[in-house]
Amino acid sequence: MDEKGQKIFDTLPGRGKDDILRGPLAFSAYNLAAAQALHDLHDAAVPGGTLDPHTRELAILVACRETNYNLEWNGHEASGLKAGLDAKLIDVVRFNRPLTSLNERDATVIRFGRQMFHDKKVDSATFAKAVEFWDKRGTMDMVAVMNAYAVSGYFAIAVDERSPEGKPTLPPVK
Predict the structure, then answer these.
(1) Other beta carbons less than 10 A from residue 22's beta carbon
(2) Second label for 17, Cα 20 to 30 Å away, from 92, 109, 115, 148?
(3) Mean pLDDT in the chain?
């Protein structure tokens, strides 16, 4: 690593006591500029964003579900429960269930993510509903949160990351 790369590497979170970088930034660190960009996107969207913890954790779970990102799903399922997500709501995301039983705010987050990742297009009605709930900044914060975790999920896909022994894996999306 050159001096510039080492400076970037030294700022990335996720190193253990053994000084080995783990987690999503470890995969992207083969290109340190990409790792820095991913870390910056995360920090801008998650701690620097405007979403309340409930909405943010739901958006993260949607992105993790869409990329089958088990590592972050396992961590954020617990964070979601702590942020007030109901276990039944989490199961709607986990098992790709219909949104009919959900309140409009939660359904909007999930619908937005499903459209963005599956349809590659968010329809006008869904976008307008998101702006009604979270305004334009909050809606774009939701996009940034989902994309930060989806990008991490794609790195995990590329390296065939597996859940640690004893940790659950997401079921296949049907």
Answers:
(1) 13
(2) 148
(3) 89
The pLDDT of residue 119: 94
Which pLDDT belongs to residue 59?
A: 98
The full set of domains in the chain, from first to last, is: 45-158 (1.20.1290.10)
Is residue 14 a contact partner of residue 21, using CB atoms and an 8 Å limit? Answer: yes
Distance CA 70, CA 155 (A): 12
For residue 56, give Cα distances in angstroms to 19, 32, 106, 110, 163. 30, 26, 11, 11, 23
Task: Confirm if 146 and 57 have CB atoms less than 8 A apart.
Answer: no
Residues 6+ apart with CB under 8 A from 60: 72, 76, 79, 80, 145, 146, 149
Q: For residue 56, which of 34, 76, 38 has the smallest C-alpha distance?
A: 76
Alpha-helical segments (H) within the chain: 3-11, 24-28, 32-45, 53-66, 70-82, 87-94, 104-114, 124-158
On whether the CB atoms of residues 173 and 114 are closer than 8 A, the answer is no
Phi-psi region of 140 (alpha: psi -120 to 50; beta: other; left: phi over 0): alpha
CA distance 167 to 8: 31
Res 76 pLDDT > 90: yes
Q: Model's pTM, two decimal places?
A: 0.88
